[in-house]
Amino acid sequence: MDVELLEIRQHLGRFPPFDTLTDELLDEVASQVEVAYFKAGKEILSLDQELHELCYIRSGAVEVYRRGGELYNRLGEGDIFGQFSLLRNRRVRYPAKAMEDTLIYFIPEAVFRHLCEADEDFADFVELLRPRLESAVEEQKKNNDMMITRVRKLLTRYPVMVEASTTVQEAARLITDYQASAVLVLDKPGDNPRYTFRDSEDRGWQVRGILTDSDFRTKVVAGGLSPDTPVGEVVADRVIAVQSDESVHEAMLCMLRHNIHHLPVMHRRRPVGIVHLSDIIRYETQSSLYLVSNIYHQPSVEGLAKLAPDVSGAFVRMVEEGADSRMVGSALSTIARSFTRRLLELAEESLGPPPVPYCFMALGSMARNEQSIVTDQDNALVLSDDFDPAEHDAYFRELAKFVSDGLDACGYPYCKGDIMATNDQWRQPLAVWKRYFMEWIEAPSPERLLHSSIFFDLDAVYGENVLVEQLQDLVAEQAARHPLFLAAMARNALNRTPPLGFFRTFVMEKDGKHNNSINLKRRGTAPMVDLIRVHALACGSNAQNSFDRLDDIDRTQLLAPGVSDRLRYALEFLSMSRIRHQVIDIEHDHPPDNNIEPENVSSSERHNLKDAFQALSHAQKFLKFRYPMPSRTK
Amino acid sequence: MLGLPRGRAQVPDWRGFVSSRASAPRDPRLARFFAAGVPAPETPIAETPLVALDMETTGLDARRNSIVSIGLVPFTLERIGLTGRRYWIVRPRRPLSAKSVTFHHITHADIAQAPELDDILGELLEALAGRLAVVHYRHIERPFLDVAVKARLGEGVMFPVIDTMSLEARIHRQSLLARFKRWMGRPPASIRLYDSRERYGLPPYQGHHALTDALATAELLQAQIAHHYSPEIPIGAIWS
Q1: Per CATH, the architecture of A491-626 is what?
Q2: Domain A6-129, what fold?
Q3: CA nearest B226 in A: which residue?
């Protein structure tokens, strides 16, 4: 009998996870369905009842509860429930009640199991093989060619290598003979085992550094060095390199980060080649690299401001190429840093050299390398302790104003909270900054820290980096020793909570109320970043990036096994959702924002977002428990 | 909750009728059907095996028009199981009119391949046996089947049915509120299958497919009982 139950089949076929099933599997489901009607208010599944069916909502709405009776989820047409119980002990874990008059299709357990076996996507969806969020994040990565292409594919030959004692003239001749543009400088094995290797004749070497075409101009010729100078005296004593199995994208970001054009590629500790910027550009045209190098070539603020539209262009391209949130955040931060650096260079050109050393400090998302396309400027100046306000402040006030106005012109609006170097309070010598931080840490209160948490993401952008590094070290050292500070930070990290999920075209709050849109930063990424920061401070981490912080947290016993992975996936998914919706905004010529409207959220994205919100919610509960407010009576 | 219908005293004694016919028929298919009997009228609806039945016909008059397709879905008050569904297209004795073709989406080509009703009668009666039939508008399925069987086997087939349309009429046309609304000049509620379903929040289906309509009728009965009756109501109070 080949009766087509079109009504059932077509309806199922419109909703995940059924929408990707083959026709045969869909027929199998449709033909085995059992139907039942539930009047509004009637219980559909009761706690601990035996369950042998997956429930599918054909029409109406269903509320699902936790064991304790609090609302867990509200589901509508096309949603499924009961899968958790089916996958575990076949006892109902989350009781369900019809919220409206509801028609349910029950899919027998045997069919459910068969679908899980026959269709991997279905199994992923119902969380049989692994958590859905994890598979969603992995899926995003799978589609991207650039990410799986290893940097070694760009290498065409071994690097030209010379000993440190070689003269610069000899090195230049070798470069010319090999038609190369750089040499690696080797020395006897020394203090850095990371770049120490043995050659084919079993001699030990250590990579000292790289000497490039332009070094011959800037260091040798311009420096008036003799052709007999050993290269070891010219080469900068540091190596920035990537491993050969890193992705091309990683190599590109590494160049962006360090503003270098040649990147040695290592296989373990042995150099196997040098990648040049142009190799990557040839591989990946139209990238944010162009933008960055363009920024450094602008002679004026006006020129820089003209590049502002290119930022969103580079952003859209990157997302379309399948970059993950770390790449996007890192690239956008690099772009913003480049604008800032160039503005500072221009400022110094017009104001003259600084009277005392300083460091321009980024705060917040830029410091975390998690910048978004929707951002304002958060910055400060850390001045050398030789700073004398009467004598020097006029210069730095001018400098700060120049940069701040310039950033505003380039699409980074002024900070509403006035956290900018133009604010006298945030343009201070190192000693004052140290005092600020010690006051926040030693005498904290949630109120005092409410607007200061942004200072606990800090990074150097330009100038004497060591000034900011000292502050980073101070925070990493002191924060963990002050439980009251951690408790106050934790308290503030709980101010913003995620919603429960989506219901039809609404965002559903935990108390069952509905909203038309959701600010994914305020309700998702920001509280997640906040709570990761608290844990990172508690374990003395020096890292600023949330993912790096999670790596540091992983080295401690702070979180139960698996928890940090869940947070990682949740943050990645929340960030990517936000990024994708910003791309949609840009493509529709709307100014991008942090809001997403539920009608633009696909069904599977809803499920994943709900999982991410839940991971965040669990993590917040743990935070409250882990960093309690010490009682004030001592 | 509505009471029993008033002034409808002559509900037939279906049980007596069906069992009296069990020994009479000469056709073995009919004999088996009647032998399976009818549930006792005091059986609660929740415990009664039911079967939703729908037919598409070439017209409304059982003596002049023919059956084109038959769909049925066995069910209980708790569950409608689609594995037991049956659907037949049958070749009518009279040709299809163009109008009924557009109505049922069944074409002449479908019909040409189809069996005679005679060929599927055994299967049909077997699927109905021992279950209480549920239809929407009882003046189609029962008389058409009766006439068709009588024409082929020389004796008719009659059985009790629950008519979801007449239940809907009781609720929406005969209740005090409904009569009051009528006095106030409001148009009476539509009791057609898909209008009735809408009142219970049941989804719209593409109508006029015998199997889909049978499923739609089964869902409607579940909804009617959930809203207006108790699962304990004896079937004798709602069949006709």
Answers
A1: Up-down Bundle (1.20)
A2: Jelly Rolls (2.60.120)
A3: A39
